[in-house]
Every structure is written in structure tokens, then in C-alpha cells.
């Protein structure tokens, strides 16, 4: 590796090192962002899958429970107690009689199944990002660190040769 006449000074050397350090910090930031995205995607996929499973519960059980509407209460404590009571008194429907052949029930089931498929696709995408993108980022980071080290060693070697030649001429 050689240096042009514009890159032979100490300021240029420090600027190049600073640039390389900034690139390494940027790659670390990109890696943290990708890891965060993968985590968020997995959490979202799990939540979506859970919501789909919850939505399909009516299809798997004999009863469909709902919440009674609770009127306004004076404070949060009374509200939560009333809400718990309303949930315990849920309305019951006989699925086999009421929902048999229902287009709404069929549509709902289809929608929940699609939601579950979407969750699986998001999870697979997160896994692919983690395996491919993070591996590539790690390799790029290692290459950048190796290039920085090689640059520093080459610069030190050239500087040492220059110092040796300068002293031998004096």
C-alpha cells in the first residue's frame, strides 16, 4: 500500500483513522438496529399469532364469551371491579346452532387464518434477516477492522523507515 503526496502528513493519517473509526461505529449501529428490528418482528409475529389464535377460539369451543358493557364508574378501582364482574358474566352463545353456515363466522375464520399466515411470514423474514444480514454485517465489520489494522501497520512501517532514513542522512 502506498500513500499519495496528499496523504503523507499526520493530519491526513488522523483523518483516515477517524474515517475508518466512524465507519466501524456506523456498522455497529446498523447491527444494533437490525438486531432490534429482528426482535421487534419476532415479538410482533408472536403477538399476531396469539391474536389469531384468540380469534379462532370461538371455532374450537362450544361457547363464545363476550363482555357486557359497563357503565361509567366514579373511580378506577370501581371500574376495574365492575369490569371483572362483567367479564365473569359473559354472554354465552351456542356455536353449533347460532353460527352454523354463517358467512360472518367463515369470513372471520379465514381472516384469522390469514393473520396467522402473516405472522409466520414475518417470523420467517426475521429469521432470514438474522441469518443472512447479520452474518454479512459481521463479516464486513471484521474486514473493516482488518483493513484499519493493516493501514496502521503499513503507516507505522513507512513512518519508521522514514525516520530511520532521516537519521542516517544526518
From TrEMBL:
Keyword terms: Coiled coil
Top-rank lineage group of the source organism: Eukaryota
InterPro entries hit by this protein: AH/BAR_dom_sf (IPR027267), F_BAR_dom (IPR031160), FCH_dom (IPR001060)
Domain F-BAR span(s) in chain numbering: 1-170
Coiled-coil annotated spans: 112-154
Name the UniProt record assigns to this protein: F-BAR domain-containing protein
Source organism: Phaedon cochleariae (Mustard beetle)
